[in-house]
Amino acid sequence: MSxxxxxxxxxxxxxxxxxxxxxxxxxxxxRLHRYNTAPGEVAETALLEEEFAAFTGARYCLAVASGGYxxxxxxxxxxxxxxxxVLTNAFTLAPVPGAVAAVGGVPVYVxxxxxxxxxxxxxxxxxxxxxxxxxxxxxxxxxxxDRLMAICQKAGITVIEDCAHTMGASWNGIPxxxxxxxxxxxxxxxxxxxxxxxxxxxxxxxxxxxxxxxxSGSYMLYDRxxxxxxxxxxxxxxxxxxxxxxxxxxxxxxxxxxxxxxLKEQCGKWNARYRVIEAxxxxxxxxxLIERPEAEGFVASSFQFLLADWSSEAVREVIGRCGARGxxxxxxxAAEPAGFTSRYDSWRYAPAPRMPExxxxxxxxxxxxxxxxxxxxDCDLIARIIRAEVNAVWQAQAEAS
Length: 401
Hints:
Strand content: 5-15%
Oligomer: single chain
Number of domains: 2
């Protein structure tokens, strides 16, 4: 009898008890707005910003309403104006080009490699086309950041990092989000910290962060941001920066602070699960694993593999067969967007020329969430199911040919 997996791919761990207690404290006193504080009180949101700045090693941090808002704010603070072109990954999720469109920018897509990172040769070739790169560390895969920054510095390109999938990760020991002008993070439910929705951005640039704080809706209360530039930085910026309110509230910050204290431990748990699935799938005929570079300190809250150069029908069959056995896989090669999964030609507000090599890679990318509610035994079972179904379809294709 075939094994069946009965776990839920969208079920996260519960909020830790100290996070629940902290949230209850905020609800009991009722001061949810970040600037609504009692005399002598430091808001939960300000404390979260201090703690996240320390976690990443950044000078400044701002907590906002979502990861997408963080990216759009970073783009605005970096000076992107309507009509400006912005380089970004062709392999990413819709909020990334969406943030570019939100500020009136025009996405210019850069190709993807079989390592699922931005194609640095293509980036170098397109470097003259824009002055900003919105780099998406899509699904937690980090490119050679030393080489990327060298390319961008030579071309005068400002880098903004989308770290929605790499909170806690690093390249050569440097935390993800600390190479560019801004690092932007998400605390949406399926990310490494969970507040339902939420975002954080970090920077070492005082003027850029001052703009971001004003954009977020600080009014003239920027002095209540303890992980912020000094008040004199705001002297002129406060008059010329619009308020585009997107603040995080104290309730979400209270939920996040205890999770942040556990993040390093949680990262280890994700990677342990990743390694079990990786070991279970290694050597499967027709299936290509994504090899992680030694310099990449990754955090694997999801798992990807390639069914490279398979027909669309065969990929759909693998996904259907695995789904029938309880293993929920997503496919980035589908012609139509579905759920959270889409590709660059789905975003018709930002049309782009065809990218044949990128299309070939996208056509083979299979994606799976990896929540910490799965045990290591669960992950072993998942790998067995995927391996068996990929083998079955692979053998059928071989016999048919």
